[in-house]
Automatic annotation (TrEMBL):
A Pfam family assignment: GST_C_2
Identification of the protein by name: GST C-terminal domain-containing protein
Organism name: Alexandrium andersonii
CDD domains per record: GST_C_family
Domain annotation GST C-terminal: ranges: 1-153
InterPro entries in alphabetical order: Glutathione-S-Trfase_C-like (IPR010987), Glutathione-S-Trfase_C_sf (IPR036282)
Length: 170
């Protein structure tokens, strides 16, 4: 049962967050909603660009999957008392979310607050006690800091004035 749950956690990540499930132009993974431009830029080719309806739907999907994860994780790690592949799968993506969701979209700092995701916050803090995870975090974080300095997110921020879509969760 434990191994099956671990595999389920990885499947949820891979199907609903990290995989576009299609290689055709215009299709993107859910996490791409955080950084793919609405029009062609030096960071995003036209065939990877994301329109507002798609971005808004994918942001809603991120919230939905984080809610599911919060409700179903075993603790202190995602699948229970020890670090598993599920933690190693979700953690790097959580760093993307940690960086972009508050900065670009105005979300709360979801891995540092206890109102919405207390178990995920505890999980993130627990993993951040481990040097392997903090080294991973630093490398990903530094990458996005540089992209932010270069202006990668400005095209997305310009679209967020369209109030006909929900950009901020909860």
């Amino acid at each position: 049962e434990g191994r099956a749950f671990e595999h389920l956690l990885c499947r949820i990540h891979d199907l609903y967050i990290a995989s576009p499930n299609c290689t055709q132009p215009g299709f993107s993974h859910t996490q791409g909603s955080m950084y793919l431009s609405p029009y062609e830029t030096q960071w995003c080719k036209q065939e990877r660009c994301m329109d507002n309806p798609t971005r808004a739907a994918k942001l809603a999907e991120i919230w939905k999957q984080l809610t599911w994860l919060e409700e179903n994780m075993k603790g202190p790690y995602l699948a229970g008392p020890k670090i598993t592949l599920a933690d190693m799968t979700w953690y790097p993506t959580a760093i993307f979310m940690e960086f972009m969701l508050p900065r670009v979209f105005g979300w709360p700092e979801i891995f540092y607050e206890t109102k919405h995701f207390p178990k995920l916050t505890a999980w993130f803090a627990e993993l951040n006690k481990n040097k392997i995870f903090t080294d991973c975090r630093q490398e990903i974080w530094d990458f996005w800091v540089q992209k932010e300095k270069e202006g990668q997110f400005e095209s997305i921020k310009g679209e967020l004035t369209d109030c006909s879509y929900k950009w901020v969760y909860p």
